[in-house]
Amino acid sequence: MYQDLLLATDGSDVAQRATDHAVELARDLDATLHVLSVSEDGPHAAEKQDRLRSEPEDEAVSAAERATETADHADVDVTTDIRHGVPQEQVVDFAETNPIDMVIVGTAGRSGLDHLISGSVAEEIVRNAPVPVLTVRDTP
What we know:
By secondary structure, this protein is of the alpha/beta class. It has 6 helices and 5 strands; from the N terminus they run βαβααβαβααβ.
């Protein structure tokens, strides 16, 4: 039933938790894990770049490499893709245009004003993905 899992990662701590869950699930199901990281071109990309003092492309590649190493270490079949654009749109597009059975994504669980201003990438993926979405919260 679940043979192709899509892991959306940005390299954050919560994305690492999602990676751990995705790798374990892929191993248990003998599924292929497709790792997707997006070099952000969205409305908050410049703000994020200034805060982190790094290039979005380098960030995306690094996040994908870390997830791929985790999957390789667990003997999980893995593919990697780097895209450019708005993360939630790219994740949904990947799930729509590839044979994906489930999306796995971390969520920071923000609420209140912060959530209203910036929204939630995970929430947009849940709303728009053509397949089930497993969200992994940042709290243990």
